[in-house]
Amino acid sequence: MSDLPSRVEITEEGPREAFQIEPGPIPTEDKIALIDALSGTGLRRIQVASFVSPKIVPGWADAEAVVGGFAPRPGVEYTALWFNASGLRRAMGFRDRLSIFGSVTVTASEAFTKRNLNRTQAEQLVAQRANIAAHREAGVVMERVSVQAAFGCNWGGEVTAEAALDVLSDAMALAKEEGCDIRRITLADSMGWATPLRIERLVGAVRSRFPEQEIVLHLHDTRGLGIACAAAGLRLGVARFDAAVAGLGGCPFAGQPGAPGNIATEELVFLCEEMGVETGVDLPALLETAHLAERIVGHPCPSNLLRSGIRRAA
Amino acid sequence: MSDLPSRVEITEEGPREAFQIEPGPIPTEDKIALIDALSGTGLRRIQVASFVSPKIVPGWADAEAVVGGFAPRPGVEYTALWFNASGLRRAMGFRDRLSIFGSVTVTASEAFTKRNLNRTQAEQLVAQRANIAAHREAGVVMERVSVQAAFGCNWGGEVTAEAALDVLSDAMALAKEEGCDIRRITLADSMGWATPLRIERLVGAVRSRFPEQEIVLHLHDTRGLGIACAAAGLRLGVARFDAAVAGLGGCPFAGQPGAPGNIATEELVFLCEEMGVETGVDLPALLETAHLAERIVGHPCPSNLLRSGIRRAA
């Protein structure tokens, strides 16, 4: 009936996701404090910053100060995000502190690609050759193919599993042509269009086509089905998830200000624990960190578990 | 792989759940407005009030005015809640407006029974004879057995499926002895202790023992797993759920002020629609009603779908 993994790897994306979208200026030292608190919870992968243009994302104008400022904890891998050669160069300045790998990134929705990147999907695919070349020049391995809006988007509607698989297959073919050794596929539900059934369809289709690839689910809880989708993924043996402490974040291009963001790391950890799946995370410590995150952003965050606590028997 | 029902019946419990727990006094006309808005969404069962002592639950001191005040809509069944003969008498005054049936109610946790009712589980079971007698005298059918805290409680911890099944079996035996024709079993997760795996275990165990009974799931989203639990229930063919618009409510005895309450009706409806399960509910109308509910209680409610909207393609 189920193929539950014995253990999952969680990439904590709260800092990167939150500070790109929160309206208020957040002090650099608060960003660093959150990262250092997260690394104390047992999380082993933390995405700490986005090297993007401060004109487009003012919240990450201090990316260098944040990445230079946190206290690296042995055994924890710190990652960052970038979208072009200039971002990659900035990240490369922190090779000693960051785990640096590249992603071939495509989008399963034409409408979202145009809106977000002002490109067609075909142009976005071609642009991946330059992306791969930039990483090759920098000596950085392209580790994964990432499909954004893999389940649907607010502008183009639902994306079928077939359509997402087509986009993914084109990207995998291009990566192969370019000599990349892809090991992971991220299916990103950037705007909360996934449902448990659609997780099953797409994960099943991707598995059949690319059985050697590890699948990563990046889920948003925008419409309340995020944890149900994570449960569906776990059932299928998916063992790698992205999440954000307190449910921070959102999609800056989704046209839904105030909409809930990523699935909350503490709810994912709780789900895993209750299903007998190991996470390595200390849940009470993570809940404390979620409270810290809430204090830093200065408003209530969508995580339900954060409101209620774990409340084992008193 | 799955036994999805083609259609589910949802009992909307938002009015009853919310107005027992909201701290501020809510005007009677607002309660009535919410009920009348709900009956316009396609929901066919709405629990509109609780006939309890105003000393214990001041929020329902106006139960009579609310039940006498809403505009009954043909095809919609209105229900209420009571816990003793005096409450039943008050409900019976509205036989023309309410669908009145009785429940044999037991609790799967000794600690919660003591805390909530100041009784042992054994005493609570015995008290069900008087409860049945009161209904018999009033000519009211005992329709269901309801198991509170069926998955766990904040005071006693986890309740195993075996323990819940024992409590249920004792109640079913007593109901049979008393000549009741029980048709439904409600498994109530009063404090959010259910998880998808535990839903499968308990629903499976109850089905095996009482195959002729319809199972109703009453889920709370206290710790973020409510919709994942509903998805697990749907997969097992459960076709009757309680829910509360906007995720109103909570458990007044759970010792968690501010903790999220019932699963949000709109998230349940959205889940069902996306799984191809009919609900009869107009989701956009329900979302408007959820916004009304939020305005009435005067604070943000936990429903994520309410924050983001359904956002079909623009």
From TrEMBL, chains A, B:
InterPro entries (alphabetical): Aldolase_TIM (IPR013785), HMGL (IPR043594), PYR_CT (IPR000891)
Keyword presence, Cytoplasm: no
Keyword vocabulary terms for this entry: Lyase, Metal-binding
The keyword Lyase is assigned to this record: yes
Domain annotation Pyruvate carboxyltransferase: ranges: 8-287
Entry-linked PROSITE patterns: PYR_CT
Superkingdom: Bacteria
GO molecular function: lyase activity
Alphabetized CDD domains for the sequence: DRE_TIM_HMGL
Family that this chain belongs to: Belongs to the HMG-CoA lyase family.
Protein's recorded name: Hydroxymethylglutaryl-CoA lyase
Species this protein is from: Sabulicella glaciei
Taxonomy of the source species: Bacteria, Pseudomonadati, Pseudomonadota, Alphaproteobacteria, Acetobacterales
